[in-house]
Design goal:
single chain; 219 residues; alpha/beta; 9 helices; binds 1-O-pyrophosphono-5-O-phosphono-alpha-D-ribofuranose
Length: 219
């Protein structure tokens, strides 16, 4: 045990990280230091279990994992699809469930049906491109935005948006609706391919424990 190296986790900041830490606690992985919200510390350690954790912006998590700066990452499937990094996706953690959708005013439905060359605003240009070009074979103009994407059709920047819908209230409050569903999303665990080979037993045992806990919670 003593010559084991530290396994490093990169967790997407915010609700996802909190949920992940809750789940880890349920299988006996604690990181008390991380609960201190006033701390500006960036890396947290559990010396007993030889684990290290750090928080990162969601889109950076697959980057840390691809380069091996973190062995394991937890991030939304939206980010995994958008970043398209060389990582293994090993587990659906089941929380953070939502749907990637094409949304817009009801009047845009026709533009989609007739495969017109429309403008699509999104924080996820790669997902939007893949959906329209590869799945629908529709040529569109994609405009990258960094947030509040629903503004796109409201101020006539775009005809539709490709964005995450969770409760649907942002759409409803702005007179927009889901026009097409692109794919389901939730939090996923990803692993660096080299770490997977070098630390197979530790990583598999961790994944199995989490999977068993998730199954138990479903019942
Ligand atoms: C996300 C998403 C939608 C909203 C959907 O935005 O981009 O705007 O949540 O949630 P709802 O269906 O429950 O209303 P987020 O709050 O992450 O902020 P952003 O718009 O700045 O990306």
């Amino acid at each position: 045990m003593s010559d084991e190296r530290y396994l490093t986790f990169a967790l997407g900041k915010g609700r996802l990280a909190n949920k992940t830490l809750e789940l880890f606690e349920q299988i006996g992985i604690h990181c008390e230091e991380m609960k201190d919200k006033s701390s500006r510390k960036l890396i947290f350690q559990n010396d007993e279990l030889k684990l290290r954790f750090f928080l990162a912006k969601g889109p950076d998590v697959p980057t840390y994992v691809e380069y091996g700066a973190a062995d394991i990452g937890v991030v939304g499937r939206d980010t995994i699809l958008e970043e398209n990094r060389n990582v293994y996706e090993v587990l659906d953690l089941g929380f953070g469930k939502c749907t990637m959708c094409v949304c817009g005013p009801a009047s845009a439905r026709e533009l989609l049906q007739h495969h017109e060359r429309i403008r699509v605003a999104s924080k996820y240009p790669e997902i939007a491109k893949d959906y329209f070009y590869n799945k629908k074979h529709q040529t569109v103009d994609i405009i990258k935005l960094n947030g509040s994407v629903e503004l796109g059709p409201l101020v006539e920047l775009s005809d539709v948006i490709v964005d995450i819908v969770e409760t649907g209230s942002t759409l409803r409050e702005n007179g927009l609706e889901v026009l097409e569903e692109v794919c389901p999303l939730s939090a996923r665990m990803i692993v660096n391919p080299v770490s997977m080979q070098m630390e197979t037993d530790r990583i598999k045992s961790l994944v199995n424990k989490i999977r068993a806990k998730l199954e138990e919670k479903k019942q």
